[in-house]
What we know:
The protein has 388 residues and is of the alpha+beta class. It contains 13 helices and eight strands. Flavin-adenine dinucleotide binds at residues 121-125, 130-131, 155-157, 200, 204, 206, 362, 365-366, 369, 371-372, 375, 388.
Amino acid sequence: MDFSFPPEVEEFRAEVREFLAEHLTDEMIDATHDGTIHAPALHAAMAERGWLAGPVPEELGGGGRGALASVVLNEELQLARAPIDAMAVSIVVASILLEHGSEHLKTTVVPRLLDGTALGCFGYTEPESGSDVAAARTRAVRDGDEWVINGAKMWTTLAHIADYVILLTRTDPDVAKHEGLTFFLVPLDTPGIEIRPVPTMAVERSNATFYDDVRITDEWRVGEVDGGWTVMKTALKYERGIAGGQFPSPPVIDAAVDWARTHQRADGSRPIDDPTVREKLMRALIDVEVCRGFAYHTAALAEDGVMFGVEGSMTKLFASERYKQHCRWFQDLMGVEGLLTHHNPDAHLGGRIEEHLRHSPVTTIYGGTSEISRNLIAEGHLGLPRAR
Ligand SMILES: Cc1cc2nc3c(=O)[nH]c(=O)nc-3n(C[C@H](O)[C@H](O)[C@H](O)COP(=O)(O)OP(=O)(O)OC[C@H]3O[C@@H](n4cnc5c(N)ncnc54)[C@H](O)[C@@H]3O)c2cc1C
């Protein structure tokens, strides 16, 4: 078995590292503490290189960079702690529009999402429907050539900086729940939209969004009327594609290794000299290798034209659950020092482990919870009977 990447992919990895050394600054990473995981200058520089269009399939009008290069880009960005949430979401929105959008959306909105001049966000979840996303109740009612939208969405992350929300609505309440849904792309400056901040236990800020007699023309519809579930499946396909390349733990492991090497205990020893500390660090590093195996396997399948099924969910489940565990281990090892936050000048590496500890649980919730991932793997990979 040859586990190495083709030379052009390794060359691309070197190019990404060089790019990040030049364009990613500590200030950009620190700025995420205001709650928004997005660096406009980095985003623009990546767009200029064509890296936003890169992962979008060529047959859809994207860069067609291929899955191996895409996973390498994703890996390097995460290892470097680049704030890329808005980038990842905007690429998914563009891909959905290229598959299901009208000519109007393909020619006016997609180019802006891919050249970095506009941002998208997801409007699927509602106060009463998250995992069961097809239970959405936000109503869209036709009025001539217009649609009138009323309802509320929860966890519309990035809505406060985005230009467009891809919105799941109910257009027919009298049929089975999967059959009466329709998607729209809604410009967020349309009258009737209110965006309220929702703080989280992590640094990340999310939003609640409200739609009060919001009027848009039919050219903003995405996919068929009442055909929203088909679009939702495409959205989940791309979201799980991103989930297939997750490396949240390495920055925390780096911080833990640094602490273990530099911290002096009262008896003059360093934590790294302690075999129980080294064992935890090694176990975490082995988990990262497993994540790498999952991610590269998923990318190799995609590169061979096999549309992966549950592999993205497997990586996401393993990476996020282990990440949560790693953060707990390391904060525990550090004792009281592990509780110091970013704003405390004595915090080790700007309180990185404490910050990740608060962030890690949300990674087991958004993009599909761990329980939903387990259901998908049980049914799609292990062949167990459907549980829902
Ligand atoms: C920080 C953050 C950012 C987010 N960003 C966005 C965003 O940008 N756009 C967006 O649309 N959504 C977003 N979400 C929403 C996210 O996708 C949902 O929170 C998630 O899908 C779970 O839905 P819920 O919160 O309604 O929980 P529920 O679905 O109510 O689940 C509650 C619990 O029940 C479990 N459960 C539910 N159904 C099953 C089942 N069938 N089998 C076993 N267990 C089950 C779940 O695993 C969970 O533990 C975000 C969430 C968070 C926390």
